[in-house]
Amino acid sequence: MSILEADRTVTTTLAEPLTRRERVVLSELAEDVTLEEIATRLFVTRNTVKSQVRSVYRKIGVSTRAEAVAWAEAAGLR
């Protein structure tokens, strides 16, 4: 599945589509790294990453990192 196809899938299944940055953060969550390490990779603060993670969780209807990663895999984003 191409990125464009994945975008369509995610957009059509969510009330609020994930932004490009939220998709990046979601993919980073699948790695064994801390929020601080994600922030460093993305050149933002840890609080920015925390806000983006909360937004992703709310949009996809999960409450844990493991659920978010499973959702991403099921949606074909990983």
Automatic annotation (TrEMBL):
Protein name: LuxR family transcriptional regulator
Organism of origin: Cellulomonas cellasea DSM 20118
SMART domains: HTH_LUXR (SM00421)
PROSITE patterns associated with the record: HTH_LUXR_2 (PS50043)
Keyword NADP carried by entry: no
Keyword Transcription: yes
Keywords, alphabetical: DNA-binding, Transcription, Transcription regulation
Residue intervals of the HTH luxR-type domain: 11-76
GO biological process: regulation of DNA-templated transcription
GO molecular function (one): DNA binding
